[in-house]
Amino acid sequence: MIKLKIKDGLSVIFLLGLVIVLVVLSSTQVSSQQQRLETGLKEKISYRAPALSRVVMGYYPTWKRAEFSHSQIDFTSLTHLAQAFTKPDSDGNLVVDSNYLYPELVAAAHSHSVKVIMSIGGWGNCQGFPPTAASPEKRSRFINQVVEFCRQHDYDGVDLDWEFVSNEQESQNFSDLVRELSAALRAMDPPRLLTMAAPAGPYWGRWINYEQLHPYFDYIALMTYDYHGPWSDHSGHNSPLYTCQNDPCGSFDDSFSYAVIREIPLEKLLLGIPFFGRSFNTGKLYAPSTQSEYYNYSNIQKLLASGWKYNWDFCSQVPFLLSPSRTTLLSFDDIRSVFRKCRYVLDKGLGGVIIWEVTADWHNGRPELLQTVARTFRTPVKK
User: Fold this and answer.
1) Residue among 368, 340, 346 nearest 275 (CA)
2) Backbone phi, then psi, for 310, in 5-degree steps?
3) What is the DSSP letter of 154?
4) Residue 246's pLDDT is what?
5) What is the pLDDT of residues 240-287, one digit of tens each?
6) Smallest Cα–Cα separation from 61: which of 370, 378, 360?
7) Cα 321 from chain centroid?
8) Does residue 149 contact residue 143 with C-beta atoms inside 8 Å?
9) In 10 A of CB 306, how many CB atoms?
10) Distance between CA 351 and CA 79 in Å, rounded?
11) Which residue, 104, 153, 189, 288, shows the most beta carbons closer than 10 Å to its own?
């Protein structure tokens, strides 16, 4: 009996020891799992929103601020915001409309680490450029006022949008203006950026000395849209990715090739993506046309919902709509074509894109095209 009791006691002791070992192992396992969980949480916390791997410079037309305020801009999808427009007058003064002063816009952009660029010129605002650029005194006045405006209102740079330099003398004067303005902006503390909205092809581009001027710019943006419009005698795409045999008027791809020939560094080259389209009073591509109208992307989506027929041009890699009566053709960009253009920018190793303009693409409660650009350019980045 005593032997049996001893064996029973040893069994109990063994069982108690086994329980203790299991408890310790279980505690160690839980602790290890908790440690891994905490480490994982820390890794997630250390991640910030994926960064944009390319420049995304969106133009904001200040005259639309009453209908589309700064609070509606998706700053998370931008790296730069170009505020349009100020202009020079014929005496070299910087003309700033009272509506242009928008400190809330600048503050909102900066809170998202987006740089704000003052865009000078634009279509219809360039009459003051030729006399200003032609005179050393007027250039100096203009540059001093630009620098002071950037300093006072916390702008991160200047965008020159002279549409268009049109002869040899203007070409030389423009070069002088660029060199002097660049020096003044880079002398600021902190230094400011200088960018340019440039013609997309040789017709106007021949008057810009890109080969010598590119060192003075941070970015050179080709306006790769408006290949067809009211000035055209036939219908065609507003911004084709590729050129087709039927229409030699140029394309996104042609403009890239032109930039390479003109020695614009790829990392400084931005190509333009339009958030608008153009209609023509014909039902066929590359057919005679006498009328063209402008439509933003939001309104184009309404037409599509009202019965206009969607078509995809496999040659140009962009869409177009036909009216129910098949008497109007509308060329535009959509999510599909914007994605392909952004992939083109990535594949070619370019600096990024500009967008005209950030108020135009709202559909289904969000900026569809801008977010397509951002998604295509995003890469995960650790802090």
Assistant:
1) 368
2) -85, 135
3) T
4) 83
5) 999 998 888 999 999 999 999 999 999 999 999 999 999 999 999 999
6) 360
7) 25
8) no
9) 9
10) 12
11) 153
